[in-house]
Specification:
alpha+beta; NE0471 N-terminal domain-like; Double-stranded beta-helix; 2 domains; six-stranded mixed beta sheet; four-stranded antiparallel beta sheet; 11 helices; globular; binds fe (ii) ion; binds zinc ion; trimethyllysine dioxygenase
């Protein structure tokens, strides 16, 4: 039998483990030789009945060898914590039933075994306990090392500039409202991919538009109300309620959690003109900034910006913490850009920076603004009754040109979590397989 050593495991540790722990016998040696042959192909495939990973236990970890070079090491405490048997994990609610802090710090399996269904671990306890971890789940969740090709790939985003005008993502009202939810899936997928989507053929009234908004999730009530139906009468103390031009901005920079989606629908525009809609892909502009002006990108990624909504005596909004958030926020795990917050009009006093930081900040927003307002970035469109637009407020900035006459606008905010949940659920449902039940091993749980 050939022995493969997991990197970091000394031969003595394996020897010790094979004395102290009942390890798989013939099946593992068969698997090891099968894997040795397969290793020349360089790309390991998921284990099959005759092709099981090699396992090896040390005092504090279990190592799983996917091929001669790729080993994943799992801490015993991690394995015990992630047991998904009915005693340790509620099979319906998908909630942990283990009190993790009660797991003994030096816990070690009494037996580890490679089986067709996964890694079988027996734990010493007064009441014997077995945990079974599917191989694909272990590979997907390998953390030492990460195995990128085993992860569920993130859904693709398409960054766009002004040329998006040639192929604007659109669904019809009929599609979005259809009971089988396929059109709804297309709609939320478009929002994810492009950061916005038009809905055509919407009856030009608030009732239909509200029903459309509710297809995605709960409407988020704010100081502007729940579902808005407004004109330029300054009914609320915000420039949205005027006839002024509005530069590209995201909404709610003064909230701790700005709304996820914004849907708006122009119901009528009479006795005047103007009021084109402006959309700019903040992720596209950020990608250009990062490439051409990395220093400015870093400043916008690291400088918190205070903001406020104070146009009405009854409300005074500031984010928590009050220092605010940077213009560009990133996923702390992947480092990917996750959110753009930008509304120069709502920015509060900048009194928290050193003189040098202050100079760098003004220089950085000058470049940012130049890229945001370039002809290559701006997508202008004249919307009319019947076409609603929905915007991912964490990515796409919106604005409008000044107008004359009377405009009646309606729309709503939808929470980011509601939208992401709807997308995830519809992805599950339309994943290709007949989807009837969420597994305790579903990705991300
Ligand atoms: Fe706005
Ligand atoms: Zn368990």
């Amino acid at each position: 039998m050939r022995k493969f050593l997991a990197p970091g495991l000394r031969p003595s540790m394996v020897a010790a483990s094979s004395r102290g722990i009942t390890t798989p016998s013939s099946r593992v040696s068969q698997a090891a030789s099968a894997i040795a042959v397969k290793a020349t192909t360089q790309s390991p495939s998921p284990p099959t009945n005759t092709d099981l990973p090699t396992i090896s236990a040390s005092p504090d970890k279990v190592a799983v060898g996917w091929d001669t070079r790729t080993w994943s090491r799992f801490h015993n405490i991690w394995l015990r914590d992630h047991c998904r048997c009915p005693q340790c994990f509620h099979q319906i609610t998908k909630q942990r039933l283990v009190n993790t802090s009660e797991i003994p710090p030096g816990i070690s399996p009494s037996k580890v075994e490679a089986t067709e269904n996964g890694l079988l671990v027996s734990w010493p306890s007064s009441q014997p306990h077995e945990s079974l971890y599917p191989w694909s789940w272990l590979r997907q969740n390998s953390y030492d090392p990460q195995i990128p090709d085993a992860k569920v790939p993130p859904r693709e985003k398409i960054l766009w500039g002004s040329k998006i005008m040639n192929s604007v993502p659109t669904v019809t009202f009929e599609e979005a409202m259809a009971e089988d939810d396929r059109g709804l899936h297309k709609w939320v997928s478009n929002i994810h991919r492009f950061g916005f989507c038009f809905v055509s053929g919407v009856p030009p009234n608030p009732e239909a538009t509200e029903k459309l908004s509710q297809r995605i999730g709960f409407i988020r009530e704010t100081q502007y109300g729940k579902f808005w139906d407004f004109t330029s009468d300054l009914a609320k103390g915000d420039t949205a309620y005027t006839m002024l031009a509005l530069g590209a901005h995201t909404d709610n920079t003064y909230f701790t959690d700005p709304c996820g989606l914004q849907l708006f629908h122009l119901l009528s525009h009479t006795e005047g003109s103007g009021g084109s809609t402006l959309l700019v892909d903040g992720f596209y502009v950020a990608s250009i900034l990062k490439e051409l002006h990395p220093d400015a990108y870093n400043v916008l990624s690291s400088t918190p910006v205070p903001a406020h909504a104070a146009g009405e005596l009854s409300a005074l909004y500031r984010p928590s913490p009050p220092g605010g958030y940077p213009v560009l926020s990133h996923d702390p795990v992947t480092g990917d850009l996750s959110q753009v917050r930008w509304n120069n009009d709502d920015r509060s006093v900048m009194n928290h920076l050193s003189p040098q930081q202050l100079e760098d900040w003004y220089a950085a927003i000058r470049v940012w603004h130049k890229l945001l307002t370039s002809a290559d970035s701006e997508y202008w469109v004249q919307l009319g009754p019947g076409t609603a637009v929905i915007v991912d407020n964490h990515r796409v900035l919106h604005g409008r040109s000044a107008f004359t006459g009377k405009r009646r606008m309606c729309g709503a905010y939808i929470g980011v979590d509601e939208y992401r949940s709807k997308l995830a659920v519809l992805d599950e449902r339309f994943s290709g397989k007949a989807f009837t039940e969420r597994s305790v091993w579903s990705p991300g749980l």
